[in-house]
């Protein structure tokens, strides 16, 4: 039973009334009545959400333009984007438009993965908000979100995303995209979060979108009655390579080589060669950590990445490699000066380095990037350490390098080669659009580089087994290092993210 009307209040020229209900006081708008926005504010257990009606959208992209103007974004960064889905065979074809902003998910992947806690779930409205002041521009949220909502702005060095025009909504006005739509295809609604979580899938899934249960999207979709199962993204044949992220390519290969080399030296090294090798491996590790900051939009704030180590794999990677750098510095110094405690420092260096590689791998094990989200990513990273680390140490240990280590290097090279071939076969046999598209990239524009890497791995294995002198070892290291740099490049550019129709909003660019 609701309580009687309590009072009328004025809010920026609009009239509201406060009424009682089962959830307490509810603020209601009395004038003007706008069917595109709720007539009251959310109460406990509710939040705002978008409602997109595909039957009304004509693909004019007024919502895109209004969003960019409202948020002063450059043309290639669009927080609301319009894609297309299609089905049928000529002349019986259908095409519909799909306009999507942020879904303000109940279990937001961007929030969970952020290493600096730049995302918050606003309690009064339920909206997922992003703080540009806290952001360091690591772009990890852009990989975690299966809808491609957060977008990196290289000019500002930070990520940005749709916040449902938070200031407008909290002032009782419609978001810019809602106001600009000439067909009324976009609306703002209130949703009971508990009820939606139990029954959302029926109204939150659509062709061209990732499964709604990945983050529990709150967006409600009205689909055409005759929408069949054969609908797919209109840009399916036009997948292009992703950005290579060169600082991360260098960082990953160098850290894995450094860890492998120091583990080898700590376990089997002795004498002057071990001392020089430890210092050289330490320098490679520090160079790798320095290179990683070049990936950040705001590298001066890199220290913030330690903040969310309890939740974010990126924070855990930073913490692990920070410990590795400290332990490796102590180990190399103690080894060179003949100080006590060398064995303990060697063990600590190995443990922290192995943990760092694991954290690196799990950064990329995100559902929004299917070709990364596999045990093969973990295996590939560790095989790089097992391949390059011993080769690097071998250059300094010389005759101290055991024959068994040669077989380990050759085995790691061949295992890496077979892993890449098996990955390609798995992608080709998959029914998943993103994995099949990754296979198409590796076998068309990236085919030469993919085959070159396989050849270089085979050469590395052959030289490691047949070569005896320093020149042969150095040659194997150079070829193997080139193979793994090429491998990390392919790792980044061949991934196909889950997203809405990509070619219509330019979220992917040619690899450079």
In short:
46% of the residues lie in helices and 14% in strands. The protein is α+β, with helices and mostly antiparallel strands and 512 residues long. It has 3 domains: 1-33, no CATH class; 42-237, Alpha-Beta Plaits (2-Layer Sandwich); 246-496, Formate dehydrogenase/DMSO reductase fold.
Number of strands: 13
Main-sheet strand order equals 1-2-3
Structural class: alpha+beta
Q: Which parts are unreliable, with pLDDT below 50 for 5 consecutive residues or more?
A: 1-32, 501-512
Number of helices: 16
Fraction of helical residues: 40-55%
Determine the mean pLDDT. Answer: 85
**CATH architecture level-2 label of the largest domain:** Up-down Bundle
CATH topology (fold) name of the largest domain:
Formate dehydrogenase/DMSO reductase fold
Name the helix and strand elements from N-terminus to C-terminus, one letter apiece.
EEEEHEEHEEHEEHHEHHEEHHHHHHHHH
Q: What's the CATH H-level superfamily name of the largest domain?
A: Formate dehydrogenase/DMSO reductase domain
Envelope shape: elongated
List the helices and strands and how they pair.
Elements: E1 7-11, E2 14-21, E3 24-31, E4 46-53, H1 62-71, E5 81-89, E6 92-100, H2 109-113, E7 119-121, E8 128-130, H3 140-144, E9 151-153, E10 158-160, H4 166-170, H5 176-180, E11 186-192, H6 193-199, H7 201-204, E12 220-222, E13 232-233, H8 246-268, H9 271-292, H10 313-337, H11 342-363, H12 375-397, H13 403-429, H14 433-443, H15 447-466, H16 470-493
Parallel strand pairs: 4-12
Antiparallel strand pairs: 1-2, 2-3, 4-11, 5-6, 5-13, 7-8, 9-10
Helix pairs in contact: 8-9, 8-11, 8-12, 8-16, 9-10, 9-12, 10-11, 11-12, 12-13, 12-16, 13-14, 13-15, 15-16
């Amino acid at each position: 039973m609701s309580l009687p009307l309590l009072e009328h209040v004025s809010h920026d020229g609009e009239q509201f009334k406060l009424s009682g209900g089962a959830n307490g006081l509810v603020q209601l708008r009395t004038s003007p009545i706008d069917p595109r926005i709720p007539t009251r504010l959310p109460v406990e257990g509710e939040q705002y959400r978008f409602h997109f009606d595909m039957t009304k959208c004509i693909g004019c992209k007024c919502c895109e333009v209004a969003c960019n103007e409202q948020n002063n974004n450059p043309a290639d960064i669009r927080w609301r984007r319009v894609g297309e889905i299609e089905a049928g065979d000529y002349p019986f074809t259908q095409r519909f438009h799909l306009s999507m902003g942020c879904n303000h998910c109940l279990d937001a992947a961007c929030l969970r993965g952020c290493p600096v806690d730049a995302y918050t779930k606003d309690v009064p409205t339920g909206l997922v908000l992003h703080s540009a002041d806290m952001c360091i521009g690591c772009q990890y949220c852009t990989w975690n979100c299966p809808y491609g909502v957060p977008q990196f702005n290289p000019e500002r060095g930070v990520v940005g995303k749709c916040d449902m025009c938070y200031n407008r909504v909290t002032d009782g006005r419609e978001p810019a995209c809602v106001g600009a739509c000439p067909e009324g295809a976009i609306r703002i609604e209130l949703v009971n979060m508990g009820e939606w979580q139990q029954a959302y899938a029926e109204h939150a899934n659509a062709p061209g979108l990732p499964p709604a249960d990945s983050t529990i999207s709150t967006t409600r979709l009205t689909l055409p009655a005759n929408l069949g199962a054969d609908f797919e993204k209109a840009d399916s044949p036009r997948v292009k390579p992703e950005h290579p992220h060169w600082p991360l390519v260098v960082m990953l290969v160098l850290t894995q080589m450094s860890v492998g080399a120091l583990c080898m030296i700590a376990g089997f090294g002795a004498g002057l060669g071990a001392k020089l090798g430890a210092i050289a491996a330490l320098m490679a590790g520090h160079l790798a950590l320095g290179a990683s900051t070049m990936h950040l939009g705001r590298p001066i704030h890199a220290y913030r990445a330690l903040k969310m180590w309890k939740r974010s794999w990126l924070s855990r990677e930073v913490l692990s490699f920070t410990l590795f750098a400290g332990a490796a510095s102590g180990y190399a110094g103690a080894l060179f000066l003949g100080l006590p405690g060398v064995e303990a420092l060697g063990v600590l260096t190995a443990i922290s380095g192995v943990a760092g590689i694991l954290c690196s791998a799990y950064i990329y094990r995100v559902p929004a990037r299917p070709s990364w989200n596999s045990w093969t990513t973990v295996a590939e990273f560790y095989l790089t350490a097992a391949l390059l680390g011993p080769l690097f140490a071998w250059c300094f240990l010389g005759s101290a390098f055991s024959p068994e280590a040669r077989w380990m290097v050759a085995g790691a090279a061949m295992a890496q080669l077979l892993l890449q071939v098996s990955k390609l076969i798995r992608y080709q046999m998959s029914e998943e659009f993103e994995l099949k598209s990754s296979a198409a990239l590796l076998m068309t524009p990236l085919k030469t580089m993919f085959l070159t890497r396989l050849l270089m791995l085979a050469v590395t294995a052959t030289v490691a087994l047949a070569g005896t002198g320093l020149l042969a070892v150095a040659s194997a290291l150079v070829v193997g290092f080139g193979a793994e740099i090429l491998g990390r490049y392919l790792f980044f550019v061949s991934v196909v993210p889950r997203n809405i129709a990509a070619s219509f909003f330019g979220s992917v660019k040619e690899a450079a």
